[in-house]
Amino acid sequence: MPRGKHLVCACLGTACHVRGAQRIVEELERKLGIKTGQTTPDRNFSLETVNCLGACALGPVVVTDGQYHSKMRKKRRGGSVDQAARGGVSSGEGKAPSFGLSVACPRCRQKLADDAYIIDNQPAIRLDATCRGRHGWLRLSSRYGSREIAAEFPITKGSVVEFQCPHCHIPLPSPTNCWDCNAPVASMQLVGGGKLNLCCRRGCTQHLLDIA
Questions:
Q1: How many other C-beta atoms lie within 10 A of the C-beta of residue 154?
Q2: Which residues of the chain have pLDDT under 70?
């Protein structure tokens, strides 16, 4: 099933679990009227869980469209869903500063963070790219929900890019095609469990956390 416009992701790792993360998930299911792994009938929200989001000290953690909400409680939890429905996240209690996802090459397992290149106030994802006969470096925002990039050469809207690992130089696997534009979907390993799947067409906004 295609994912909804807004992705709500709750961490069920050990640190979050012992602090009541399962109760947060149950409240999310109740409010959205769906079970984990499902999308609301209006395709506005999808609900997922993940083994780790790399923010153990902030647990329980809920992420809505890339915005982290820390130390969640049932009375606070609804705020992240309501804020996403308004198309943004406002400041308030229970919200943590947003930070990037940590990803690695699924083949050589080398991390892809570039601490020297900052996009959206976070270390960028370092990749190589080939597009329309040109090859060079590429940096993607590591903040989930953002499609900000920087590249060695211009990549026009609608172009399909082949992503390669800068360490092993092998193209990132494309296990499927985009459910929206049918372009290849590149897959990166999410540190802590799961995958980040990203449409390779410039301008397409479809990407998601695939919880393994």
A1: 10
A2: 1-2, 53-55, 57, 66, 74-100, 145, 207-212
Any idea where the domains of the chain sit in the sequence? 6-85, 103-210
Specify whether the CB–CB gap between 55 and 68 falls below 8 A: yes
Convert the pLDDT of each residue in 43-83 to its tens digit: 888 888 887 766 676 778 888 876 777 778 766 545 555 55
CATH topology of domain 6-85: Glutaredoxin (3.40.30)
**90 close to 17: Cβ distance less than 8 angstroms:** no
**Integer CA distances (angstroms), 17 to 59, 60, 76, 79, 121, in order:** 8, 7, 17, 20, 29
Could you tell me the pTM of the whole model?
0.61
Query: DSSP letters along the chain, please?
Result: ----SEEEEEE-SHHHHTTTHHHHHHHHHHHHTS-TT-B-TTSSEEEEEES--S-GGG-S-EEETTEEE-S--HHHHHHHHHHHHTTS----TTBPPP-PPPEE-TTT--B-EEEEEEETTEEEEEEEEEETTEEEEEEE--STT---EEESS---TT-B-EEE-TTT-PBPP--EE-TTT--EEEEEEETTSSEEEEE-BTT---EEEE--
